[in-house]
Design brief:
Length: 121
């Protein structure tokens, strides 16, 4: 199964602060483990929302909204795309991850839809 692992933003990541050298080293090692295990398909950190844009869809209308965006807890600072055996397997791998931020951090795991999910649609 493919899952997206979503690292939520923090005040520091939204301020554009770079991670410490220690965290970069720890994440590099962790990513190597994921790659060696054949789990990591992709992953990246994201620039702060101040460098982003949103496009709001309302019927036929499109409105462009420049960042930054409010509600840091709803923003994403980075992601991984993994191929795992099960959700339990993804959880076990994620529990080995270094904390992406110095403070309490929530990291979300969401399964991707597959063609089979739409078979009855």
């Amino acid at each position: 199964m493919k899952v997206m692992v979503i690292v939520k933003a923090s005040k520091a990541s939204e301020a554009g602060e770079m991670p410490s050298q220690q965290l970069l080293a720890d994440m590099g090692k962790y990513n190597e483990e994921l790659q060696k295990a054949g789990i990591m398909l992709d992953g990246a950190g994201l620039h702060p929302s101040s460098k982003g844009k949103r496009v709001r869809f309302a019927g036929q209308n499109r409105t462009v909204i420049d960042g930054p965006f409010a509600e840091t807890k709803e923003l994403i600072a980075g992601y991984w795309l993994w191929e795992v055996k099960s959700m339990d397997d993804a959880v076990e791998w994620l529990k080995r991850c270094p904390n992406p931020h110095p403070e309490v951090t929530d990291v979300e795991i969401r399964p991707l839809f597959t063609a089979e999910d739409f078979a009855n649609a």
